[in-house]
From TrEMBL:
It comes from Algibacter lectus. A divalent metal cation binds at D16, E17, D108. PANTHER family: RIBONUCLEASE H2 SUBUNIT A, RIBONUCLEASE HII. The gene is rnhB. Its EC number is 3.1.26.4. This is Ribonuclease HII.
Amino acid sequence: MLLNTHSNILLECGTDEAGRGCLAGPVTAAAVILPKNFKNIILNDSKQLSEKKRDILKPIIEAQALTFGVSHVFQEEIDHINILNASILAMHKSIQQLEPQPEFIIVDGNRFKPFKDIPFETIIKGDGKYLSIAAASILAKTYRDLYMNKIHEEFPMYNWKQNKGYPTKEHRRAIAEFGITKYHRKSFRLLPEAV
């Protein structure tokens, strides 16, 4: 059973990102403040849910959240500032969109940089413990998937519609065969050394 809040502070936002380990496309983060009495029996860490369940939850979260924000940080920026900094930047940009601003931030994972002077706590596997982080993980994942589906049309040979830019065997084979696109992260090891 996921918990509603970590602090007893009224405006607590959860934040999480998707796409950190991908070879192509943005890293996408979301931040969500849920009402105190929010309940949902299927909401969980996005990785535990099927695509169908995530797509069902997305409009529910958007309708019932007090406020939410979603932000992409694209491959050029990832190559420029590195993936950890890009992930944190995407979280900051999504928190920036919240209206009202949170009084406390809970972050999935173990790394974060202070945002304004709002107190925060990092929580390992937080997306499996707190509803707001789980909700953020769903929005980050669904918005990123929509973006990857869109750029799939431009470069269908990488099958991003299926792999979403993750380093699958098929994706690496396509890189070996067709080279890289403007959407690939050039700072990542795109092919195993042997290739």
